[in-house]
Design a protein that fits this description.
Two copies of one chain form a homodimer.
Chain A: E1 16-19, H1 23-34, E2 39-42, H2 46-54, E3 72-75, H3 79-92, E4 97-100, H4 106-113, H5 118-122, E5 124-129, E6 150-154, H6 161-173, E7 177-180, H7 183-207, H8 213-217, H9 221-227, H10 234-243, H11 245-271, H12 280-294, E8 308-315, H13 320-330, E9 337-341, E10 348-355, H14 357-369, E11 373-375
Parallel strand pairs in A: 1-2, 1-3, 3-4, 4-5, 6-7
Antiparallel strand pairs in A: 5-6, 8-10, 8-11, 9-10
Chain lengths: 377, 377
Amino acid sequence: MTADLPRPTAATASPVRIVGSGLLGASLGLALRAAGVDVQLADTSPVSLALARDLGAGTIPDPAADVPEPALVVVSTPPDVAASVVRTELAAHPGAVVTDIASVKAVIAAEVLEGASPDDAARYVGSHPMAGRERSGASGADADLFAGRPWVVVPTESSSPAAVAAARSLASDVGSFVVQMGAAEHDRAVAVVSHLPQVLSSVLASRLNDADETALDLAGQGLRDTTRIAAADSRLWTAILTGNAAALRDELVAVRESLDHVLGAIEQGLADPLAQGAIGPLDRVIRSGNEGAARIPGKHGGAPGRYTEVTVLVPDNPGALGRLFGEVGEAGVNIEDLGIEHSAGQRVGLVRLSVVPQAAAGLEAELDRRGWRVVAR
Amino acid sequence: MTADLPRPTAATASPVRIVGSGLLGASLGLALRAAGVDVQLADTSPVSLALARDLGAGTIPDPAADVPEPALVVVSTPPDVAASVVRTELAAHPGAVVTDIASVKAVIAAEVLEGASPDDAARYVGSHPMAGRERSGASGADADLFAGRPWVVVPTESSSPAAVAAARSLASDVGSFVVQMGAAEHDRAVAVVSHLPQVLSSVLASRLNDADETALDLAGQGLRDTTRIAAADSRLWTAILTGNAAALRDELVAVRESLDHVLGAIEQGLADPLAQGAIGPLDRVIRSGNEGAARIPGKHGGAPGRYTEVTVLVPDNPGALGRLFGEVGEAGVNIEDLGIEHSAGQRVGLVRLSVVPQAAAGLEAELDRRGWRVVAR
């Protein structure tokens, strides 16, 4: 299978210095080593540093030895310390391009550029690999963490073409695909596609603390989906949210306005369910949500709805899924996407298989013939 | 495989009359017919009614003929008309138990019981099968729609034990598992586990209408998960939300308060990121969300975290998933849960396999040996 996923040939010059050896830094080290690039590791915590080295993410340069100068420095610290580390690295390595991989960009760029020399400013470019996980720390590091993910390259007005090219090569070398935009555009984008979902998921999940145990037994896939990212790291997320305060505030103000419309309608409805203004705002928010959700690109960046779902009721017996997917494979049908739904207390699941529309009917007939319980579309 | 999912032996007496032949009514008819129960169908729309009959959900009684009296009437209309239909059915079928399957219960029970005779009141019991879909209409009907789902039986203070038993048998006969609670408790429960997630998902998705195309290219699994249920039917959901106004208002007020705390902190942080009160509230909402999300029961009603995730990078080639699951099956490991993550524009996906903790390391080693790229835990 490995042959299906060719490793890129590294365009990044050795050595790369990675400052901050947590989950992302250590994963980046592993990915670069796998691509044949030499990696120097640094971290304020000697234990984190040694762990990343022991995992194979890079070497710890001996300060007494003649250490080769890095061509590229990657700052992978929490967002609130990224700018000062970038400035330190620009000063310490005057021949290197320096990039940070924090999730917010405008505040960091502003702090980096404030009073910077033209040369220092030219050597800085921001990055944001969209490859978070709910955990943190080098022990979760993986060379494939960035594979198949967007990596946003965020030049400032002062970034040199060479600096931008170095960041783009880095992203490609670890298997990401490159998206390039300015800091303000980036911050607005992640406010709506990442930071607002995080806040709303956390707020929603926090409401479960007041719920009865019995209420939670009624939890279905909808609640599970909407609260999955609520299992987030608070140290990291406080820094992200406060670091993107301006863009996030605009989103939160808009959300509060929508909620006020819903709440106003609900309060009208409490007095009289058919009162003027009791239904219209509820209809508007559901329909507006329909339209917004339809804008999210499907797999491969294609339009949503490119695939047809085939739903199969699967018993929870050893090997049932293996049997199902084995038989789907025998039927010669490629699965474009999949999901599974469970309810508490039941030993069956609904497996949703997305296939190209022209394959759906044949797959359903074949699975039916083989004795599977296919849920009608 | 069908043998793995034994059909229950019906305890429900024939015939059952189903009023409303949309998705849920027609699915219920199919499920009861499959369990050997006779079903009479009714609907205000002759076309919907004929469609449900043609799908095999039941028969349309000839008003001129001598139609057998139903022992049980199931009202599966939209929530806003359920109570008046229940009253009509109680009057028309004085020997029958009548239940409705709408998603809200207290307002319907109050309207049913208002001025009802003791006998009518005794024959009514509420139901709520937790088996919605994002679509509607009989054409999506399926006999397995209720299998493995919770079905809440909601007696009033007047419901007779026989009426409650009839609703419980109905739920079991279509493969659901029965949860019993009062109307107020039910409405509070679904406000937090179903209606609030719907409102927040719709509000979140509605924000995407203002986003740039490029921003949407950065959408990851977090946004997809949190907005999946935003593809909801507005006719149904306006009736549900307004029908549960009291319980939903309490949740929305609490959410607005949480959002105000977040927004207050963000605004403090805009002036000075380390101002008093800029970080604490953000930390609190993330941590509170951690705790709330951890309360959601895992599969089979067990505690979350019972399973260990093994993540595999899968190329998007024909048959790759079939090969993967075939090889997982050969390794003798049972998959307890699964999911897949994609990014726009990439032809690889991350497949997450949940397995019992003691099987994880062996499965990782085996998949690695077979050439799969396993992402480290």
